[in-house]
Specification:
The complex is a heterodimer.
Chain A: E1 4-11, H1 21-34, E2 47-51, H2 63-69, E3 77-81, H3 87-100, E4 106-113, H4 120-127, H5 143-157, H6 162-177, H7 190-194, E5 198-200, E6 203-204, E7 214-222, H8 226-229, E8 234-243, H9 258-271, E9 280-282, H10 288-297, H11 306-311, E10 323-324, H12 329-332, H13 337-352, E11 367-374, E12 379-386
Parallel strand pairs in A: 2-3, 2-4, 9-10, 9-11
Antiparallel strand pairs in A: 1-7, 1-8, 4-7, 5-6, 8-12, 11-12
Helix pairs in contact in A: 3-13, 6-10
Chain B: E1 2-7, E2 12-17, E3 22-27, H1 40-50, E4 55-56, H2 73-80, E5 84-85, E6 92-95, E7 101-105, H3 126-138, H4 148-153, H5 155-160, E8 162-166, E9 169-171, E10 189-190, E11 195-203, H6 216-219, E12 222-228, E13 234-240, E14 252-263, E15 266-275
Parallel strand pairs in B: 4-5, 13-15
Antiparallel strand pairs in B: 1-2, 2-3, 3-7, 6-7, 8-9, 8-10, 11-12, 11-14, 12-13, 14-15
Classes of the chains: A alpha/beta, B alpha+beta.
Chain lengths: ~400, ~280
């Protein structure tokens, strides 16, 4: 079967942008094209998959066609992929499958979200559209609420306290501080993160990722074309996806994400690898408790040991077996919903090619993983990348 | 001759007035206010649930509502109590035209309303909350919403905790097809109270959904609990009457019909959890 190579990757800075949708997407595509060593033309593209929730509703229908039109890809077969915050993780998977199936040779996968040009009330409305509207949202829950329910239950079931989440926050801010494209480039002390403004008890402001603008894109090609574009492709070695009940109350357990477990199992199987092989993982830390669960569900820590994993600094860059969120994660790098999954792939692409800022480089990085979750865990896409085919 | 007592700790004040052949109720805040999420409908449902069930005529009550409702009064009462609505009934549901007083009497005539003594003081935000409800009802959805049809089709589950039986497994909230692709029968079994708190949170006004963004600051946030029913299903509910008490994991809650939110010119009702007295 065809192997899939990533030959280019680019993104905007995540944060507040004066550029609109078209400008941000064009910048991400421009950066992705420029990262291709031997040159790339938009006309080379067979298919494009663009993840977005269309936050705010400025271009709800035919978003993808508008974006390809403004990035030199007129006429390309394109569609918007929507799976909440996992939209571009699934765009990446769709692109991978398009090449694997032999239907396309050159595919763009990316994502975009413009979140910070809305009124406060409209933004708050859109932040809650991906949960269970009928039975969760109208019981007063937004995502801070659902993850707060999870965190309190996790503390009840396991040897863990809110301080473990503080460790996650401090680590990710430390990693993101040196990342030029991160939204929140500031270090946070343990004491400050411990005493943040309470958003959804027990989660404070320092447990929550920011709302960010941003766009990101990667260029995938079939194996026979990889060396036409670069001498150092990054291989997409594994891809997996899963889903679960939309609402927390329908899940057997709320302290583990079955969608992640299912996606990870499939990705490890297709890659022929295990969690022990991973050098760096970009995990979906929309809230700090989500990173704790992810370290368990992806196999880096045992069940109930994610809190201790964070407490003991296992995920800090170059200190443990695996570096978790070298980019700063959603917590510091930012979370432009639809752009987050492909943005994780951009980070892994650069890490595996040793192209990040020198102080951020994960030592001897050979294998990387991305983990992109939709909502409170209804959908998840996991990808595994390697320097070797 | 009358007797007055506090029903279930804090919800309503109730009087049985024998020489007026009726039962009367108001909120714990007295006649002028029915609390942060109460009104004549929630009081009437609470009163009816306290009385032996039967049939009741609601003709005079229907004109005493603050706002149009997404689910009709008959459906609201029948889904949430064991009472049926009948024009031929010799029991009559009344609502006071100005005050938050309700009654069930044996006469269609306006009753002589008794006086109540509130056991809770008015809150500073009382008028602001009343105004906020009016403003909220006039608001429109900014996109996704729960339609009136959805409220109606799920009313027995939303208001009466009716669960489906899928080959012996209780299912709530309602589902369409089971894992074998077969349609699950409509909801007939009632989940039992109290339920057990699995986890809870209190959202600041910054963390609350936009539907509650006007009221959350006045209430200093909103609390939500995830609970497990004895029959197996779990559910998420807003907490009511929790001004002076915090929930705890493994604590118990019961359920009351309250206002959930207003939108598109209608008031939407559903069940909220109330902490059981320890």
């Amino acid at each position: 079967m065809v192997d899939v190579a990533m030959v280019g990757a680019g993104q905007t800075k995540f944060g507040n942008h004066t550029l609109g949708l078209k400008g941000m997407w064009a910048e991400a595509i421009e950066n992705a094209i420029q990262s291709v060593d031997h040159g790339f033309q938009p006309s080379d593209v067979d298919e494009a998959f663009i993840g977005s929730i269309a936050f705010g509703g400025s271009q709800l229908g035919n978003t993808a066609a508008l974006l390809t039109e403004h990035s030199g890809m007129e006429g390309v077969s394109v569609r918007r992929v929507e799976n909440a915050c996992a939209s571009s993780g699934f765009a990446l998977r769709d692109a991978w499958m398009a090449i694997k199936s032999g239907q396309a040779d050159v595919v763009v996968a990316g994502g975009i979200e413009k979140m910070n040009d809305l009124s406060a009330s409209r933004k708050r409305y859109w932040l809650g559209v991906s949960g269970d509207t009928e039975w969760e949202r109208l019981a007063g829950l937004t995502f801070p609420g659902t993850y707060a329910l999870t965190a309190r239950r996790y503390f009840h079931e396991f040897d863990s306290t809110h301080d473990d989440l503080v460790h996650v926050s401090v680590k990710n801010h430390m990693h993101g501080y040196e990342n030029e494209v991160a939204h929140l480039r500031k270090q946070v002390s343990f004491e400050k993160a411990q005493s943040g403004f309470m958003v959804a008890d027990p989660l404070t402001l320092y447990d929550c990722c920011p709302t960010s603008d941003g766009a990101s894109a990667v260029i995938l090609v079939a194996d026979h074309l990889a060396h036409k574009f670069t001498d150092t492709p990054v291989w997409v070695k594994g891809s997996g996806a899963g889903s679960d009940h939309l609402a927390l109350h329908d899940r057997p357990s709320i302290t583990q994400l079955r969608a992640t477990q299912s996606a990870a199992a499939k990705a490890y199987t297709t890659a022929g690898l295990t969690a022990q092989d991973i050098d760096l993982a970009e995990v979906h830390d929309c809230f700090t408790i989500a990173e704790v669960l992810a370290t368990e569900d992806l196999g880096f820590a045992g069940r109930g040991m994610g809190g201790r994993f964070a407490r003991e600094g296992e995920g800090r860059r170059n200190e443990g077996e695996v570096t978790i969120n070298a980019s700063g994660g959603l917590k510091s790098k930012g979370h432009p919903l639809g752009a987050t999954g492909s943005g994780q792939a951009v980070e892994v692409f650069k890490q595996l090619r040793h192209q990040v800022e020198s102080q951020r480089q994960v030592r001897d990085a050979e294998i990387g993983l991305t983990h992109n979750v939709g909502g409170s865990g209804a959908t998840c896409a996991v990808h595994i990348f390697g320097r070797e085919r | 001759m009358c007797s007055a007592y506090l029903w279930k700790g804090a919800l309503i004040l109730m009087q049985t007035v024998y020489n007026n052949n009726g039962n009367f109720a108001c909120s714990q805040y007295g006649e002028e206010w029915a609390g942060p999420d109460g009104d004549r409908i929630t009081l009437a449902i609470a009163l009816l649930k306290q009385l032996p069930s039967g049939s009741v005529n609601i003709n005079s009550f229907e004109s005493r509502l603050d706002f149009p409702t997404s689910v009709g009064i008959q459906e609201l009462i029948e889904a949430s109590t064991n009472w049926t609505i009948s024009e031929d009934s010799e029991s009559y549901l009344h609502g006071h035209s100005d005050s938050y007083l309700v009654a069930v009497t044996s006469s269609s005539e306006e009753p002589n309303w008794p006086a109540f003594s509130p056991n809770m003081n008015k809150t500073e935000s009382q008028q602001e909350l009343i105004d906020q409800w009016s403003k909220e009802v006039q608001g429109v959805s900014q996109g996704a919403y729960v339609s009136q049809a959805q409220h109606i089709v799920a009313s027995s589950s939303r208001l009466g905790l009716k669960a489906q039986n899928d080959h012996g497994t209780m299912v709530w909230p309602p589902r369409q097809l089971n894992s074998e692709g077969a349609r699950i029968e409509s909801s007939t079994n009632t989940l039992s109270e109290p339920a057990t708190i699995l986890t809870w949170t209190r959202l600041s006004s910054a963390g609350a959904p936009s539907e509650f963004s006007g009221r959350a600051p006045l209430l200093d946030g909103v609390s939500t609990v995830l609970v497990a029913f004895e029959e197996g299903p779990k559910g998420v509910f807003m907490l009511a009457d929790d001004e002076h008490e915090a929930p705890e994991i493994d604590g118990k809650v019961r359920f009351e019909v309250r206002r959930l939110y207003g939108q598109d010119g209608m008031m939407h009702y559903g069940l909220k959890a109330v902490l059981c007295q320890s």
